[in-house]
Design a protein that fits this description.
The protein is α+β, with helices and mostly antiparallel strands. It is built from ten helices and 14 strands. Strands 3, 6, 11, 12 and 13 form a five-stranded mixed sheet that branches. A five-stranded mixed sheet has the order 7-14-10-8-9, covered by helices on one side.
Length: about 375
């Protein structure tokens, strides 16, 4: 008999014969998939476009509940089949589990809405209280100390403090008895994909809005401002990118005044400037790359920018953590909840299963020194 250990290895000498005894005429053990597991797999297949083994929510509902008259009433269901199919859960719960699994899968599929990740540092936050991110400045050059002379006190750095709080975002969506009875499978199957898309788009825009809305940040000055040395007015070109790079590398450490020397890693543009941005780093007939071409910045087109002329540069977040996004308890994916009581709420009064999506996070700019913007008049 072989036992599978957690590490993946087998032990086969616990039973000398290598066979299971005391099970009658056979020495073989078969693991049988439970009805509830089959139901979960069936509903997962319904929401999986690559799996066409289940294409009717109407038929799935009848197979799970036995409610062939589509009353939505527990008393009209086959109680034995219902218990075997759902265990201690309800149909709404099991359907919600499949919707949630598909929503999370779609949410974690990389797409255009994931560009925000190149701007941020992600952290967990423990509660809804205001988060404080304090960053201290630096020390100036250390003075020389003559023989026999005392060490002098250094000027202590001051601090900068950015704050933000996690916020709930979400809403509800309904699946009605009529949708199931009419077999509106396309509508139901679209629910997890569109929920995931809405959650990703909302999060992405909340980060990218820092670049477009130019908010007042922790020091009481707008993010992009002459006082920050990170604002220009020239249209996107090799020359203006070079100017922006020089401005970023000239940023100085707070208090010490020492240059940081950190240049850009990403070029952010509206869709209308994507081709122009790409061509900045493309060599045509010249054998040797010019200065800007040698930078090979990663171009990040932003689908939601309505201004067709403005552009931004940003540093690698490992060099300068420009924006911080905190997720409550570290839960980065949205969550799905169900209101499914058969004797109260929307299921009882309106033959509606109501699902709630919830996504909790917050964020703030924590260092302007990693950004530059070309705000073209």
């Amino acid at each position: 008999m072989k036992w599978l250990l957690p590490g993946g290895s087998y032990v086969s000498r616990l039973v000398p014969s290598g066979k299971v005894t005391g099970l009658g005429d056979t020495g073989t053990v078969h693991l049988v998939e439970g009805r509830d597991q089959k139901v979960a797999r069936m509903l997962d297949a319904l929401f999986d476009p690559a799996d066409r083994s289940v294409i009717s929510i109407r038929e799935a509902y009848v197979q799970i509940t036995g409610d062939s008259r589509f009353t939505g009433n527990v008393r009209s269901c086959d109680q034995g089949l219902l218990r075997e199919s759902l265990g201690s859960q309800s149909f709404a719960d099991v359907l919600g589990d499949s919707i949630s699994r598909m929503m999370i899968r779609d949410y974690n599929t990389t797409g255009i809405y994931d560009v925000w990740r190149d701007l941020v540092r992600i952290v967990p936050v423990s509660d809804f209280r205001t988060q404080e991110r304090v960053r201290f400045g630096g020390y100036g050059d250390l003075p020389g100390v003559a023989e026999g002379e005392p060490y002098m006190s250094l000027d202590s750095p001051t601090d900068e403090k950015a704050t933000y709080a996690a916020t709930k975002r979400g809403g509800t969506e309904d699946i009605t008895l009529e949708m199931i009875t009419n077999d509106d499978v396309g509508v139901v199957v679209d629910v997890p994909r569109k929920l995931a898309r809405a959650a990703k788009r909302t999060l992405s825009k909340s980060v990218l809005d820092f670049l477009t809305n130019n908010p007042v940040i922790y020091d009481g000055v707008a993010l992009f401002h002459a006082d920050h040395g990170n604002l220009g007015t020239a249209a996107l070109s090799s020359t203006s990118v070079g100017v922006g790079r020089k401005a970023m590398r000239s940023q100085t450490e707070k208090d010490s005044g020492e240059r940081l020397g950190i240049g850009p890693r990403f070029l952010w543009v509206p869709d209308e400037l994507e081709e122009t941005a790409f061509n900045l780093f493309r060599r045509s007939t010249n054998l040797d790359a010019d200065f800007v071409q040698s930078l090979q910045l990663a171009v990040r087109p932003v689908w939601c920018w309505s201004d067709t002329n403005d552009w931004c540069l940003s540093a690698d977040t490992n060099d300068v953590p420009v924006i911080e996004v905190g997720f409550l308890k570290g839960q980065q994916e949205p969550e799905l909840f169900v209101q499914d009581s058969p004797t109260s709420g929307s299921l009882f009064s309106n033959d509606i299963i109501t699902y709630k999506i919830r996504h909790i996070y917050g964020g703030a700019v924590i260092d302007f020194r990693g950004l530059y913007k070309g705000a073209v008049p």
